[in-house]
Amino acid sequence: MTMQTVGRPTRPEDVQPLATGFASLTGGRGLLQDEALIFERDGWNKTGVDLPEADLDGSDLGDLARAAPIGLPGLSEPEAMRHYVRLSQKNHAIDLALYPLGSCTMKHNPRLNEKMARLAGFADLHPMAPVSTVQGALALMDRLSHWLKTLTGMPAVALSPKAGAHGELCGLLAIRAAHEAKGDPRRRVLVPTSAHGTNPATAAFVGYSVTEIAQTDDGRVDLADLEAKLGPDVAAIMVTNPNTCGLFERDIIEIARLTHAVGAYFYCDGANFNAIVGRVRPGDLGVDAMHINLHKTFSTPHGGGGPGAGPVVLSEALAPFAPAPWVVHGPEGLTLVEETVGEAAQAFGRMSAFHGQMGMFVRAYAYMRSHGADGLRQVAEDAVLNANYIKARLSGAMTPAFPDGPCMHEALFDDTWLEGTGVTTLDFAKALIDEGFHPMTMYFPLVVHGAMLIEPTETESKQEMDRFCEALLALAQAAKAGDVDRFKGAPYLAPLRRLDETLAARKPRLTWKPSSGVAPAPLAAE
Ligand SMILES: *Cc1c(COP(=O)(O)O)cnc(C)c1O
């Protein structure tokens, strides 16, 4: 037995397994408390703020002024603090453990980024502040643009799209504007079967019909099928590289050549740029437009942890159609092109009211500068190395979807190895929660049966990846040994058990109604 110097045992000789069916009396769990909704707490008659008496001469609102109390719950500062911290404990976060969601690039968010984003000169800006007062912020946007263009080998960038999917929309709107400018609107967009769902959704949203391109047995775009489907009515192809199977599109240059030969544009989904940043410049591959998920490749918090940002780099052919605003160097310093007139007359419009996600720009730029060009190249190398380590460690127990050759930044398994166990991909993923890890991406890409897509990113140490692999290997052994109950009921130890995710997505309950006994009472009148 290990003893502290004060003599207290710190490690019991044998850890007792959790008694099955054990439940706490209060809904608490370990040191985690059960937590009601803020509206269900007894907090209607107090407030955590102490404002001075308002000295108003009537109201300017006329008959718009609120006649009844607003009915918001009130909590004291410690109560509000605990409420939100308790809620945060019910969620998984990259700050707690490896977060292996494939395609999502859940890497560590360096604290330096946060420090920079909180500098008052960035954090406290108003988007309508006169440009002469925000030269530093414009300089940062200008430098970020320079790095994005340099890393991708592309001549122009639109910073304002607010997520990858928003960037796809921006890219396709630029492509549509370019075709329309030639008087040739075109109708179709080609998308491989392995694409992220946002690709066909974006194409349809912009008004194109979507044609699927088949995939080869080794997980790449089927060139023959691409060639057969390309034609003079095709506006663009949307190809992800490295693709969602975690594989580099070997024929990417030929794909670009065939696309351009019919007068179509090459949209590249750049969500997986993390795997090639500093090593490959998409502009050299013939790409015309590509979004970059700053939140993935350049480490800004996302996925419940913060907003994204999806700048789009554009080729010479598409640059004139880039949306406003953008930063230019003028005689009196930096300024913004806001109006789509004059030299900007071909810009297709705007993607957002203001300039995009400034806080994410600062974080991404801080990440670039702290790594430097050589460091960013190492990001890609280490991301690929880590994914291949995971692939190698797990391949004996689980079946890799594409066993031949190395993968890029994520390792993809199918469910062949679960055959006959009675355990599905869903069960297996849920059981990981009981082991303290977030599940991997499952059932995506759709082209792989029962897919399990694991992306460790470059920020995981070997020790952490070993802990993760050992959890997976132990679970795989349990599945093969017939311990089906462990999986079918999982998760057992999470605050909530298995949820009907489809129902939650299709019929979300977005409003709260007081249940009997909890009615908001008005704040006590003076
Ligand atoms: C994440 C992702 C997207 C969408 O990006 P968001 O920032 O979530 O909108 C598109 N394609 C692929 C391959 C992705 O991984």
* CATH domain class name of the largest domain: Alpha Beta
Which small-molecule species are bound to the chains here? Answer: pyridoxal-5'-phosphate
> What is the CA-CA span between the terminal residues?
63 Å
Which structural class is indicated by helix and strand composition? alpha/beta
How many separate domains make up the residues?
2
Number of helices: 14
| Beta-strand proportion | 5-15%
Mean pLDDT: 92
User: Describe the biggest sheet?
Assistant: 7 strands, mixed
Shape: globular
Number of strands: 13
Structural description of this entry:
The protein is α/β, with parallel strands linked by helices. It folds into two domains: 112-367, Aspartate Aminotransferase, domain 2; 378-505, Aspartate Aminotransferase, domain 1, CATH 3.90.1150.10. It is 31% helix and 10% strand. The protein has helices at 77-89, 111-117, 120-123, 135-152, 164-181, 198-205, 223-229, 252-261, 294-297, 358-394, 425-434, 462-480, 485-488, 501-506; strands at residues 156-158, 188-192, 209-213, 234-240, 265-269, 289-291, 312-314, 326-330, 333-337, 399-400, 411-414, 441-442, 452-454. It has a seven-stranded mixed sheet, sandwiched between helices. The protein has a four-stranded antiparallel sheet with strand order 10-11-13-12. A two-stranded antiparallel ribbon has the order 8-9. Strand 4 (234-240), helix 8 (252-261) and strand 5 (265-269) form a beta-alpha-beta unit. The longest helix has 37 residues, at 358-394. The chain is globular and about 70 Å long. It starts with 76 loop residues before the first helix and ends in a 20-residue tail after the last helix. The model is unreliable at 521-526 (pLDDT under 50). The chain binds pyridoxal-5'-phosphate. The site of pyridoxal-5'-phosphate has 13 residues, from helix 5.
